[in-house]
Design brief:
RNA-directed RNA polymerase lambda-3; four-stranded antiparallel β-sheet; three-stranded mixed β-sheet; 20 helices; 49% helix; globular; RT_dom
């Protein structure tokens, strides 16, 4: 169906692989400390410094193997990332060379698969350019306001780990095997690449320098965290998306939104809900997946009587709010920031150290000022806690958090120093109010144009956030 091998070979030329490494390194460099490069080591034991020293040889070798069809991925190193309720999510770390190849293959695949995904109305919002979690939330809220207030709020159990390889390979064969055999072979190798389980090394990276790690064969599922995995996940669920829209939606008036393995089906008729749930369960079973049996993960809801949590938000007929769970996480992060400060630091630096730490949480990458690209004169994309939740409609939540933050700072400062922190001191140190930032950010909508330059040509310099937010408009 897709003839992409010639483009794959071109995208994996030594020149483009070298550029990809420069982009990857720039992305992984700390914006506040340019000496700190956060490129993780793969299971091959090669650090970014070692890889960079041998970069010219590496990219030539990688390009030759890609062209000849002899490129194999090194096993993924699994790490545990904290999840909710003291649970962990397994993330797969690829070797640096494999990351570069994945990113180049993603470039080849993305545009072609977007054409496939765009044959449906906008239903899938994860791992796609120009789509986001907040867009998915706003769309669900729009449907609720239109009267689609009976909801199947669902989650696919262990989605990434349970995808059957034989069914996924069937999709690869249909799309790529005949006209793109190189790409087909590479994707087949990617999903079946061995893994190095966390329990075999438990975070001790020195073991990878001394010996080859113990490998575990991957019989099903795809690695979480890989540059290609999100794209493959959307491809695997595309037939399910088609079924919901074209088959399930043919007999019932429904709306459908999916974000990775979380999805919502809305209807105006409560009598449709059980049918929707049962048919959805059966369809997922046909493709080797299952609805999560936990009633907190998969449930039937009448939004007029009970709100729903979706992607960190809480939605009801009256508005969009931050979920209680995420409010708790935010407060805990503020507490953690404060407890990480020892009493000597607070004594020596007065309240400034406390405020500075809090500002990082509130402002994200704009803490030291907004960065302006000197190439295009546009602003860097904002990444902060509030930016993610900017589509909320309940500003009272932010007022409550502002009050809580100030009370928490006052209490912490008093416990550490025995002194009371005067209100004018907080004002002088310019601690940001979430409510104030919310209105300033909202005012920017439609006016703010962000830099879209390649990381190789983008040249960011900092400008005061107050100058940009409160003086420009």
């Amino acid at each position: 169906m897709y003839a992409l091998d010639s483009r794959l070979i071109h995208e994996c030329s030594p020149k483009l692989l070298r550029e990809e490494y420069s982009i990857y390194k720039k992305i992984k460099t700390d914006a506040f400390n340019h000496k700190k490069v956060q490129i993780p080591m793969g299971a091959d034991g090669v650090t970014w410094k070692s890889f960079e020293k041998d970069l010219d040889h590496q990219v030539v070798s990688m390009s030759k193997r890609m062209s000849s069809g002899s490129y194999f991925f090194y096993p993924f190193r699994e790490v545990l990332v904290p999840k909710d309720s003291h649970k962990h999510r397994i993330i797969s770390i690829a070797s640096i060379r494999d990351v570069l190849v994945q990113r180049r293959v993603q470039t080849v695949l993305r545009d072609e698969l977007e054409k496939l995904f765009n044959q449906l109305p906008s239903v899938s919002y994860a791992y796609r350019p120009q789509f986001s979690a907040s867009q998915a939330v706003m769309k669900v809220y729009q449907y609720i306001k239109e009267g689609y207030d009976y909801v199947l709020d669902a989650d696919i159990k262990n989605f990434f780990d349970e995808i059957p390889h034989f069914l996924l390979l069937a999709q690869f064969e249909k799309l790529f095997q005949k006209e793109s055999p190189l790409l087909y072979t590479l994707l087949k190798r990617y999903i079946s690449t061995d893994r190095v389980e966390w329990k075999t090394y438990e975070g001790n990276l020195k073991l990878f320098y001394k010996q080859k790690p113990k490998r575990t064969y991957r019989r099903k599922g795809i690695p979480q965290g890989g540059a290609l995995s999100g794209l493959i996940a959307n491809l695997y669920l595309h037939p399910f998306d088609e079924w919901v829209v074209n088959d399930l939606g043919q007999n019932m008036d429904i709306k459908y939104i999916r974000y990775a393995d979380d999805f919502i089906i809305l209807t105006r008729d409560r009598f449709n809900l059980e049918t929707i749930k049962n048919q959805t369960r059966e369809k997922l079973s046909e493709i080797g997946l299952q609805l999560h049996p936990n009633q907190q993960k998969t449930k039937l809801v009448h939004v007029a009587e009970q709100s729903i949590d979706f992607l960190g938000f809480n939605l009801s007929q009256t508005g969009i709010r931050i979920s209680k769970h995420n409010i708790r996480k935010f407060k805990q992060r503020i507490r953690n920031i404060l407890t990480e400060l020892d009493s000597d630091e607070v004594q020596d630096n007065d309240a400034k150290k406390v405020i500075c730490k809090i500002q990082y949480k509130l402002l994200g990458n704009e803490t030291n000022g907004m960065r302006i690209c000197q190439t295009c004169k546009k602003i860097e994309t904002r990444r902060s806690w509030l930016q993610f939740f900017l589509c909320l409609t309940d500003v009272q939540q932010l007022k409550g958090l502002d009050l809580w933050i100030r009370k928490t700072i006052h209490l912490f400062y008093f416990k550490q120093t025995g002194k009371r922190l005067k209100r004018h001191r907080l004002i002088e140190m310019n601690i940001q109010r979430l409510e104030q930032l919310y209105y300033a950010y909202r005012k920017e909508i439609g006016k703010r144009t962000v830099c879209t330059c390649s990381p190789l040509v983008a040249d960011f310099r900092r400008e005061s956030i107050l100058n940009v937010l409160f003086k420009r408009y």
